[in-house]
Specification:
It is a single chain. The chain is of the alpha+beta class. The chain folds into 4 domains: 192 residues, Aminohydrolase, N-terminal nucleophile (Ntn) domain (Glutamine Phosphoribosylpyrophosphate, subunit 1, domain 1, 4-Layer Sandwich), CATH 3.60.20; 205 residues, HUPs (Rossmann fold), CATH 3.40.50.620; 88 residues, no CATH class; 58 residues. It has 24 helices and 18 strands. The strands form 5 sheets. It has a 6-stranded antiparallel β-sheet with strand order 3-4-5-6-10-11, covered by helices on one side. A 5-stranded parallel β-sheet has the order 14-13-12-15-16, with helices on both faces. It starts with 11 loop residues before the first strand and ends with a helix.
């Protein structure tokens, strides 16, 4: 397992064991030298054994809680262990950040596994015959010999419905993952398990005006003894991170991708990023992605994710990681604007909730829903945020009965997977959908992909705008009109940075994002690659691979992002010996 995860931590491989448990840890030293950061952490006089992956950002609050003896401590692992010794299992109320934690009490014979509330760091596990194994990646469990050749029917249905698998399921029967904010308790020996949730109302609270909060947020996320870079997309979120870092006196190396494409619109964001980097005087690198380099990285990218994924730009993200990381420029920490859309109302579909609320104020619900059923062939509850969310994401792929069955399976699974915090939502239409995106999309797709791809190059991705205390601060402060006004999204954020960021950022509503121009690249070379991947799928009867192959073979234009989901499934089926 240590060897399988060596890319995640090239600096040290640590191990601790007793008669009940073995803990292993791979170290990526960011806050201090490797000699000071080795894990698992175990003091001889203490019952606590800690293995920790991630970064904690509320360092000032942690030091204050622990007192003068820790006043000069910069290593978050040291502060974390100090909090554990002081507060026991209640330590989790005193930390904020991105993390996957395994904590064992040698006296109580209790192990607890934690995944941070935003879900930025993954944690997979498998239980069988009173035993548990866990790992940051599925490949760690596979290295232990845990079977990977049985598909999980619900996980597969969910992937085929929305393009990925949120919640606790994976594609593989017998391998699960912690959801965002999950705590899994295991009593040893015997392996009895129980679920808890990381409590809300923890000590870290942002106070003051938004401008000061944003400055404090970015400063906290810059803590590192390694150089910090930034993925600069040309959008508002990454631009404000650049602005705040620059204002705090930090010089960031910025990166963006530039596509070789005949479609002029493809590189609009890259040109904005280029101009912004020049205005702020950053050391800026454009990573040129061609059709050939896209296809060269295609299978590696989808295999590294380890889960089904329909995102067409995975090879682009991998190209970025390889240029920035251990085999390229040697960065260990990169910042991104991930999480900003789900905090400040960035996606157009968030207006769906408002639209249906307005319709229901004028017409009976049964009439609206009946009209939609007549048009689409499916009955939806548009007074239910989970149903609205799924309606906006569902792939209409297959016969009506197949789509309906996948919809029903996925809808039931999503309702089971709702985080405990969702029950306390403020229940306004935009925020309901943003909360669902945070729980499902960010934790289940975005952070899974960024963690796996960047850690494959021994590099840590930090997403300041997904920080839970920041979410709590703005969720309590903003309302519908702050998310969208005058036809523009992120209205509050644009106003906050008006006059600080250039107008070509704050006044610009269009944004294409880091999206590979697969349509412009479609041709015989790409067709041949797609067909080769589909032909290599391990067939099990769940997916009609022949029909998919025929669709690609006859396609005069790019067959769309849904095909990328099936290409991903074909790659994973071959990787794991998983018949689908």
């Amino acid at each position: 397992m240590q060897f399988a995860l060596s890319h995640r931590g090239p600096d040290f491989a640590g191990e601790w064991r007793d008669g009940n448990l073995t803990l292993g840890h791979r170290l990526l030293a960011v806050r201090d030298a490797a000699e000071a950061s080795r894990q698992p952490v175990k003091k001889s006089e203490s019952p606590w054994v800690l293995a920790f992956n991630g970064q904690l950002y509320n360092m000032r609050h942690m030091r204050a809680e622990l007192g003068p003896a820790f006043a000069s401590t910069e290593l978050d692992t040291t502060l974390l262990y100090g909090l554990i010794e002081k507060h026991g299992w209640d330590f989790v109320r005193h930390i904020e950040g991105m993390y996957a934690i395994a904590l064992y009490n040698e006296r109580e014979k209790v192990l607890k596994l934690y995944r941070d509330p935003a879900g930025q760091k993954p944690m997979y596990f498998s239980t069988k015959d009173g035993r548990i194994a866990f790992s940051s990646e599925i490949r760690g469990l596979a290295a232990l010999g845990i079977p990977t050749d049985r598909p999980d029917d619900v996980g597969l249905a969910c992937a085929r419905a929305i393009g990925y698998i949120p919640g606790r399921k994976t594609l593989i029967q017998g391998i699960s993952k912690l959801g965002p904010g999950d705590i899994l308790t295991v009593r040893l020996p015997g392996g009895e398990t129980a679920w808890e949730t990381i409590p809300h109302g923890r000590e870290r609270v942002f106070e003051g005006e938004p401008a000061g909060v944003m400055r404090e947020l970015i400063t906290e996320h810059l803590a590192s003894k390694q150089k910090v870079s930034l993925n600069l997309s040309g959008g508002l979120d990454s631009s404000l991170i650049l602005h705040e870092a620059h204002a705090a006196g930090h010089a960031l190396h910025t990166y963006t991708t530039f596509f070789e494409s005949s479609d002029e619109r493809t590189n609009e964001d890259a040109l904005i990023a280029r101009k912004l980097a020049k205005d702020y005087g950053t050391d800026h690198t454009e990573i040129v992605v061609t059709r050939d380099s896209f296809l060269e990285l295609f299978e590696d990218a989808y295999r590294l994710i380890e889960e089904p994924n329909y995102n067409i730009s995975l090879p682009v993200y991998l190209a970025t990681a390889r240029r920035e990381g251990v085999h390229g420029d040697g960065n260990r920490v990169v910042l991104s604007g991930d999480g900003g859309d789900e905090l400040f109302g960035g996606y157009p579909f968030y207006q769906e909730g408002l639209k249906y609320a307005a319709l229901f104020s004028r017409y009976p619900q049964w009439l609206v829903q009946g009209y939609k059923r007549a048009r689409e062939g499916l009955w939806w509850r548009f007074d239910d945020p989970v149903s609205i969310w799924l309606h906006s994401k569902l792939f209409p792929d297959g016969t009506p009965s197949e789509v309906r069955e996948r919809r029903d399976t996925t809808l039931a699974y999503l309702r089971e997977s709702l985080p405990a915090s969702y029950a306390a939502r403020k229940k306004d239409p935009i925020r309901d959908l943003m909360l669902l995106d945070r729980a499902f999309w960010l934790a289940g797709e975005n952070f899974i992909r960024t963690d796996k791809l960047y850690m494959s190059e021994s590099m840590e991705m930090r997403a300041p705008l997904a920080y839970e205390p920041l979410r709590a601060y703005f969720d309590a402060r903003l309302s519908d009109s702050d998310y969208r006004a005058d036809g523009s999204n992120k209205a509050f954020l644009r106003e906050l940075y008006d006059g600080k960021l250039p107008d070509y950022v704050t006044k610009r509503s269009a944004k294409t994002g880091w999206r590979a121009p697969a349509g412009a690249w479609w041709g015989e070379e790409m067709r041949a690659r797609y067909l080769g991947i589909l032909d290599g799928a391990k067939r099990g009867g769940a997916i009609d691979w022949t029909a998919l192959r025929d669709r690609v073979a006859s396609a005069e234009s790019w067959p769309g992002k849904r095909m990328h989901l099936y290409l991903s499934l074909a790659i994973l089926s071959r990787t794991y010996g998983l018949p689908l």
